[in-house]
Amino acid sequence: MGVLTLDILTTGSILFAVAAGLMIILGVMKLINFAHGAFLTTGGYVAYLTGLAGISPWLSIVLAGLLGVAAGLVIERFIVRPLYHRPLDAILATWGLGIVIGQLITIAFGRGVQFAPSPLSGTTGVLGVDYSAYRLSVAIIAVLLACALSALLSYTRFGLNARAVIMNETLARGLGIDSGKVRATTFGMGAGLACAAGALITPMLSVDPNMGLPWLVNSFMLVMISGVSFPSLLVASLVLGGAQVLVSTYVSPILGGMTIVVLAALVLRVNPKGFSRA
Amino acid sequence: MPDVHNLIFSGRRAALIGGLIGLLVVAIAPFILDTYLTNILIRTLFLAAVVMTVDILWGYLGILTFGQSAFFGIGAYACGLIFTHYGFGDGWALAALAIAVSVAAIVAAGVGWLAFFHGSSPLYASIITLALPIVLTQVIYSGGNFSGSSSGLSGFETYYWDIEVWFWIAGVFLVLITTASWLLVHSDFGRVLVAIRENEERCAYLGIPVSRIKIVLMILSAMVASVSGFGYAAFSNVVAPELAGFQLGTELLIWTALGGRATLLGPVFAAIGIDTISSWLSGALPFLWKLLTGIAFVIVILLLPRGLAPLVDAAWRKLRSSRAASVPAIKLESAPVKTMMQSNEGAEPPLRIERLSRKYGSLHVLRDVNMVGRATELLGVIGPNGAGKTTLMRCISDGSERTDGKIHINSVEIGRGSPQRVVSLGVGRSFQNTNLFDTLTVGECLKLSRYRLDGAKLFERSESVALPQPALDILQATGLDQKLTEETRNLSHGMKRGLELAMVLATEPSVLLLDEPTAGLTKPERMAIGKVLTRLRREFGLCIVIIEHDLDFVREISSRVVVLHQGAILMEGSVDEVVASDLVRAVYAGHTEQEKAE
């Protein structure tokens, strides 16, 4: 029972950490970033490389984040910006970008599976069971991240501008808010978060050029049902992540893999607003 | 006009000639190509048929679908599973094909039910189509030995025909399907598809069953894709989860985008070209080739959103500059009025609103509105900005809008009906902003508005459109009857207004909702519209509800006025009573209750 509870909590938080970057971009820019999966993969390879170089795995998360921000700013300028008024085309363009990144990684590292060292090894005793220390710390990081991102949107100048752009972009521009800058910053942040999340989860799993895809689809569903709110994303991640763990444990791991997708699709059919107003 | 006649028939003739050329090429090709290339092309031809369905769904109807591969996979697995586990023979093959098509149709109907309903967003529909191949692949994985799990099924018994025969089967299938689709998208019904892509909401308010059309096309596309998949599996003797996968689904999209969406032939040629080259090059430089397609895809999306086909098309036109692009002319005809005048003065009023309220959170936009609109009555709704006038219109025309209360149209309660359901009860609504279909011509817009009553031809384009007299009157009054082949985006503001009104009238409503129909119009244009409205009321027995700011105009045409203020009915009466009222004057001039008391 203890293990199951911890599995649910940690799975939910990992899902949250992975989906956060996608959500911030969707929220502010109304744009689905299909390159999200490729960003996660890139983060994973940063973790792998820093592991090879013998740098601290904790630092790899920061490095991946910085790389993501830099790449995100460049991508925003050249690929995303021209497509603001064609949202469905932006999906395709970012998907194409994902293919390009994936192929570049394949050419550089081959198709094989690679591993990255874990910053924390061993187990800790919680709730009367021994549980992976790193999984627990990832859960804590995810909760901190949720607080930090909510605070960013609620209490900072950037957050105020971003919320203004979310609610009414034309009016926000009329008030002198440089919405282009808000968008660029947002895309950079989203890409940075995605890369950092990739580096964060890789030590628990492994990395290969297609690792991002299943995560992309799940985060996508989570973001769709939680609207633009980090707390409700956390709730959605815990509920659906929990369902995934339960189905995997008691029914079959393969069906567990599609739990989130199916549940989210049904929730959205019944209530198109998802969890955001629940 | 003989050349008009020619133009109309040239659509079908072109399709016939194109189809024959296609069949000829297919017949000869295997004798020219080497075995290796023929082999590759058979797979490609089957996939090209699937790409074409993607183009219809995405290019013409605007549904960005990632899931067409799932139906291809369903067809392939129906073949593989039945030939492996149950038996092989002509009977089994037919049974397997029937199963493939029906399973695909059922799954597509389910997906359509999930993805398309009034108020669903295009993004949501895309997500559902994205989830489909992922779920299907998981189901295949979990099938164990039965489905062959991740390695798939191979080596089952099948028809070991010569490679030429398979090539002919795939080729003929592709040519026939493409010809049929070409006729479909160039027909009247094809224009309905484009209209849904351009302005889905407006289509719903013209009474076009948008969701049903989407679901039906989804099912048809799925059936075509599953036949393709079946053919491919029977030919190749191998089925694998990748055939149903998300990767293939996005590749289909990429080919469509590169070839040029909504061009039909573009995607087909792109699929044939790219897939053949990839099969060739995948041995030599597999990753690099995929990288290059990825880059090309991003560049095409950014710089050539319509793909490569328009470039080819432009070059072709340059070569044959003599033949300018022309739109077939359309004749106007007078249609006998079918549903207007169905209500008369003595009967139940066509519009009855009881205790209507609309809340946004804690904000009451409308509260406890009771209203009756009788036949042959023109009811003016006035009130300051933010009084809830447009919300009132919205609640009458869309059942899902109101929070509480009942609305009866011709004695039928609208319930939670979608706009097209309310339209079918007899409501016609014009919009405050002139949101028309930019790339459609005036004539096509008019045909569109008759879709609910007259339907649309599936494989043909008709030369005329029959409209009820009042719609013809509006067209004549605004001079639109001379501009039937003009695209609507080129019209002046006044003409757009006129067309909007004519389209609403073409649906033959018995309750007509007009939201500021004369805003931004010149005095003569207003007079013309006022005359038509009066005539509609008197001779056709319509109940007209009109939102207007211009009190003089209201006085001229309306019999009764309702004043809305802060979501409630402030008073009701003749124009003169209302204008004379202190209460109304206070509301408009912004006096407070206190000042009035003084």
Count of DSSP strands of chain A: 2
Low-confidence stretches of chain B: 1-9, 593-598
Number of domains of chain A: 1
- CATH class categorisation of chain A: Mainly Alpha
The whole-number mean of residue pLDDT values of chain B reads 84
Largest sheet of chain B: 6 strands, mixed
CATH topology of chain A: ABC transporter involved in vitamin B12 uptake, BtuC
Tally of DSSP β-strands of chain B: 14
How much is the radius of gyration of chain A in Å? 18 Å
State the helical fraction of chain B. Answer: 55-70%
Radius of gyration of chain B: 29 Å
Count of helices of chain A? Answer: 11
- What would you call the structural class of chain A? mainly alpha
Architecture overview:
The complex is a heterodimer of chains A (278) and B (598). By secondary structure, chain A is mostly helical. Chain A contains 11 helices and 2 strands, in the order ααααββααααααα. Chain A has one domain (2-277): ABC transporter involved in vitamin B12 uptake, BtuC. Helices cover 76% and strands 3% of the residues of chain A. In chain A, strand 1 and strand 2 (129-132) form a beta hairpin. By secondary structure, chain B is of the alpha/beta class. Among the domains of chain B are: 2-241, no CATH class; 351-437 and 509-597, Rossmann fold, CATH 3.40.50.300. Chain B is built from 25 helices and 14 strands. Chain B has helices spanning 2-32, 35-60, 68-85, 90-115, 122-141, 144-147, 163-185, 188-198, 200-205, 210-236, 246-259, 265-284, 286-303, 309-319, 389-397, 419-425, 442-449, 451-454, 469-478, 493-506, 523-540, 551-557, 575-580, 582-589, 593-597, and strands at 153-154, 238-239, 331-334, 351-360, 363-373, 377-382, 404-409, 412-413, 427-429, 464-467, 511-515, 543-547, 560-565, 568-573. In chain B, strand 11, helix 21 and strand 12 (543-547) form a beta-alpha-beta unit. In chain B, helix 1 runs antiparallel to helix 7. The chains are: A mainly alpha (278), B alpha/beta (598). Chain A binds chain B through residues 32, 79, 82-83, 86-89, 91-93, 95-97, 99-100, 103-104, 106-107, 213, 217, 220-221, 224, 252, 254-255, 257-258, 261-262, 265-266, 268-269, 272, and chain B through 64, 114, 117, 119-124, 126-128, 130-131, 134-135, 138, 141-142, 246, 250, 253-254, 257, 287-288, 290-291, 293-295, 297-298, 301-302, 305.
